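> run fold Amino acid ABC transporter permease
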Amino acid sequence: MPHWLQLMAESLPSLLWAGLIFTIPLTLLSFAFGLTLGLATAIARLFGPMPLSAVARFYVWVIRGTPLLVQLFVIFYGLPSLGILLDAFPAALIGFTLNIGAYSSEIIRAVISSVPKGQWEAAYSIGMSWRQAMSRTILPQAARVAVPPLSNTFISLVKDTSLAAAITVPELFQAAQRIVATTYEPLILYIEAALIYLVLSSVLSQLQVRLERRFARYGGMLEANA
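> ok
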C-alpha cells in the first residue's frame, strides 16, 4: 500500500470521530438556534415596534459587517477580559448561532415580504388572528421559497465550522491539524479533511434537491386546490 494511502486510512477514524462528535453537533445546534433567532429577528424587523426593530437592524448590521472568525475570537478570547469565561464549544456555538441568525433573518424577512398581501387579507377575513395567519398561512408559503437559500446557508455552515479550530474546538479540521503535527504530512491530511467536507456537502446538496422537489409538489397541490 502506498504511504499516502496508508496514512489516510490510519487517520480516517480519528477524523470521522471528530466530525461525528463535534462538527455535526455544532452544525445542527448552530443552525437550529440560528434559524430560531433569525425568525425572531425577521419578525421584529417587519412587525415589531420601532425600538425593537432598530435593535434587530443593528444586530444584523454588526454581524453581517464583520468576519465570522473575528466574531469567534471576540467571544472566546475577548469576553474573558470582561470576566465572561466560556469553554470552546459553547463559544463556537454562540458565535455560529449569532452569525446564522443574522443571515437567515434576511432570508426569512425577504420571503415573508414576498407573500402577497391578499393572503393576509384572506386569513383575516375568515377570522384568523395575526398569530394564526402567520403560522397557518404566511409561514407555510414562505417556507417553500426559503428552502433553497436556507439549505445553502446550512451547507456553508458545515464548512464554516472548520473555523472553530481557531478557538481550540477539537472538530474535524483541528483533528487533521493534530495529526499533521505528529506526521508532518500536511498535504495528505488536509486533502483528506477536504474530501470529508466535500462528501458531507455533496450529501446535503442531494438532500436539498429532494427537499425542494417535495416542497414544489406541495406548492403545486396547494395551487391546484385553490
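DSSP finds eight helices and no strands in the chain.
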